[in-house]
Design goal:
It comes from Jatrophihabitans telluris. This is EAL domain-containing protein. With about 280 residues, this protein is of the alpha/beta class. The chain contains 12 helices and 10 strands. Strands 1-2-4-5-6-7-8-9 form an 8-stranded mixed beta barrel. Strand 6, helix 8 and strand 7 form a beta-alpha-beta unit. The protein is globular, with a radius of gyration of 21 Å. The N terminus is likely disordered. It binds ligand C2E and magnesium ion (3 copies). One magnesium ion binds next to strand 6.
C-alpha cells in the first residue's frame, strides 16, 4: 500500500535503512544461504609448545568467502548467527569439518573448536559433537572445545559442558580475564585449559612490570588448579620470551602463524610425518 501511494509516502512508512542496518539485514539473508552454498570455510591457526615451539595442534577459525565481499572475518557475522539461531547449523558444520580435517593430521595433533553460548543452550550440541567424532573417527581427546566465561551464568550450560567432557573432549576457557566473573568461572567450569586473552599478552610488550605481574598471577592461578595455560595473540619474540619465562605452556599467535586454510600447513605437517619416521 505504501508503494502505491508514491515515493514520498514510502519514505514515511518505510524510512530508508541506515547503511549499517541495511548491511545487517543483507547479512542475515545471505548468511542463511552461505552454509548451503558452501561459502563457509575453516582457517587453522597453529598452537605450539612454549618450551620448544613444537607443533601441538590448531584452532579452527570460521571464515565466510562472500561472493562479492571476499573473505569475511567472524566478528562481523557470528553475532548475527547467534541472534538468528543460524549458529546451530553453522556450528554443526564447523564441528564436522574441523574433526574431519584433524583426523587427517599426523600423530596426536589436536583441533580446537569454538562454541558459542547459544550452541550450548541449543539442546543439540552433545549429539553434534558425538556425531562429528564418530563420522571423522577422530579420537575424542584430540578435540578441544573452547567456551568463554559467559557460559558460567547458565547452570544448564555447565551441565552440558560436563556431558561434553564425558564424551572425552577437552574443554578450554577462551579469552580468560575479559569476563566479569573470571575466578568464579574457573572453579565452576570443568575446563582443563585456560587461554589467556590477547589483551594481556599485548601488554607484555610495553615492558610494564604490571602487565607481567598480571600474566604471572594468571599462570600461577592456573597451575594451582592444574590447568594448562595457552597464551593467545603472541605476535613478537619479546612477548614469547616473556610467556616462556612465566612458564605458560602453549603459545598461539601471529608469531608462529596466522589462521590459514588447511593446505597452507601441509609442508609443516609433512615435515612432522617425516621426522616421526
Ligand atoms: P577466538 O576464539 O578468541 O580466536 C582468536 C582470534 O584472535 C582469531 O580471530 C585469531 O585470528 C586472532 N588472533 C590470533 N592470534 C593473533 C595475534 O597474534 N594477533 C592478533 N591481532 N590476532 C590474533 P578471528 O579468526 O577473527 O575470530 C574471532 C572470534 O570469532 C574468535 O575468537 C571466536 O570467538 C569467534 N569464532 C571464530 N570461529 C568460530 C566458530 O567456528 N564458532 C564460533 N561460535 N565462534 C567462532
Ligand atoms: Mg577461541
Ligand atoms: Mg580467544
Ligand atoms: Mg574471542
Amino acid at each position: 500500500a505504501a508503494k502505491a501511494s508514491g515515493r514520498g509516502q514510502l519514505q514515511l512508512y518505510a524510512p530508508p535503512l541506515s547503511a549499517a542496518a541495511q548491511q545487517r539485514s543483507m547479512a542475515v539473508q545471505q548468511l542463511g544461504l552461505a552454509l548451503r552454498r558452501g561459502e563457509l570455510e575453516l582457517y587453522y591457526q597453529p598452537q605450539v609448545r612454549a618450551t620448544d615451539t613444537q607443533l601441538l595442534g590448531f584452532e579452527a577459525l570460521l571464515r565466510w568467502r562472500h561472493p562479492d565481499q571476499g573473505i569475511i572475518a567472524p566478528a562481523t557475522f557470528i553475532t548475527v548467527a547467534e541472534e538468528t539461531g543460524l549458529i546451530v547449523p553453522i556450528g554443526e558444520w564447523v564441528l564436522r569439518a574441523a574433526c574431519e580435517q584433524a583426523a587427517q593430521w599426523p600423530g596426536d595433533l589436536r583441533i580446537a573448536v569454538n562454541l558459542s553460548a547459544a550452541q550450548l543452550r541449543s539442546g543439540r550440541i552433545v549429539e553434534a559433537v558425538a556425531d562429528a567424532l564418530v563420522r571423522s573417527g577422530l579420537p575424542p581427546h584430540r578435540l578441544e572445545l573452547e567456551v568463554t566465561e559467559s557460559v558460567v551464568v547458565d547452570e544448564r550450560s555447565v551441565e552440558v559442558l560436563l556431558q561434553l567432557k564425558a564424551l572425552g573432549a577437552e574443554l578450554s576457557l577462551d579469552d580468560f580475564g575479559t569476563g566479569y566473573s573470571s575466578l568464579a568461572s574457573l572453579s565452576r567450569l570443568p575446563v582443563s585449559r585456560l587461554k589467556i586473552d590477547r589483551s594481556f599478552i599485548t601488554a607484555l610488550d610495553t615492558g610494564e612490570e604490571q602487565a607481567r605481574a598480571l600474566v604471572a598471577a594468571i599462570v600461577q592461578l592456573a597451575k594451582s588448579l592444574r590447568l594448562i595455560t595457552v597464551a593467545e595473540g603472541v605476535e613478537t619474540a619479546r612477548q614469547q620470551a616473556a610467556v616462556q619465562e612465566l612458564e605458560c605452556e602453549v603459545i598461539q599467535g601471529y608469531l608462529h602463524g596466522r589462521p590459514e586454510p588447511a593446505e597452507a600447513w601441509t609442508p609443516w605437517l609433512d615435515e612432522l610425518r617425516a621426522s616421526a619416521r
